[in-house]
Amino acid sequence: MNEGEGNLPESSVxxxxxxxxxxxxxxxxxxxxxxxxxxxxxxxxxxxxxxPQELE
Length: 56
Known about the structure:
Elements: H1 36-50
């Protein structure tokens, strides 16, 4: 993701292979917001990691 996107201070990546849970009580304030398109791309990446793939 590019600097400024979602209010990021610098370029960043989403590592869909290392998904973990966070207690909502630890999230005290919102610092940014991603576009629906970016969220869809992240979800697609997570699905590639967790859904079984057919072998050819």
